[in-house]
Amino acid sequence: MKEPLVDYIAMGRRIREGRRALGWTQAQLAERIGVSCAFVGHLERGEKLPSLETVARLSLALNISLDTLALGRERGDATLYFELARLLERHRAPGA
């Protein structure tokens, strides 16, 4: 099996760093992206996996590119979107 593309613990650290850089509490970030404060805490600790919608909302709220937020680096162009599409395709339920 291939190594996971996204390190959710590292992504959680980037979420926390982005939030703190803006001077926001977990509750303030949660309100901006439409999730609970507890869920933000889970994300920051890498304990729960966010949906693509939540990652997009985090990216916009924290003003961090999707590449940097999810992968920890700028990839440029549409590379991230192709990688996400491949990842989603691998995990799609049969018949979906």
Provide key terms for this protein.
about 100 residues, mainly alpha, 434 Repressor (Amino-terminal Domain), about 60% helix
Describe this structure in words.
- With about 100 residues, the chain is an all-alpha fold.
- The protein has helices at about 10-20, 25-35, 35-45, 50-60, 65-70, 80-90.
- It has a single domain, classed as 434 Repressor (Amino-terminal Domain) (Orthogonal Bundle), CATH 1.10.260.
- Helix 2 crosses helix 3.
- The two termini are about 25 Å apart.
Structure described in brief:
By secondary structure, the chain is mainly alpha-helical. The chain has helices spanning 8-21, 26-33, 37-44, 52-62, 66-71, 79-90.
